[in-house]
Amino acid sequence: MSELLIDGRRIPLDKDGYLQELDDWSPAVATALAVREELELQPEHWEILELLRGFYAEFQLSPANRPLVKYVAQKLGPDKGNSLHLNRLFKGAPAKLAAKLAGLPKPTNCL
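Structure for Sulfurtransferase, as requested:
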């Protein structure tokens, strides 16, 4: 098991690097997780992370790629809700990486 150290607090992660406790999430945690993934979060990343957290609050699950693309398109329009845009932002694995950075569980149908 690995962990993050944020402001003197230990945040436990599972074997895949996802938060073990959803309540441990904060913007600082998201930033630290992004650093581990060699990703610098920009405003367009935060927009998707906030959207994903809203999706999880509403449906209690992390969406796979196809539902994620559809949800983003519905909420933010087709320019942002398409596979090319999301793959560019999240290194070709938008559902998995965005869920991890948003502090959500790994999508159930992602390897």
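The first helix runs from residue 27 to 36.
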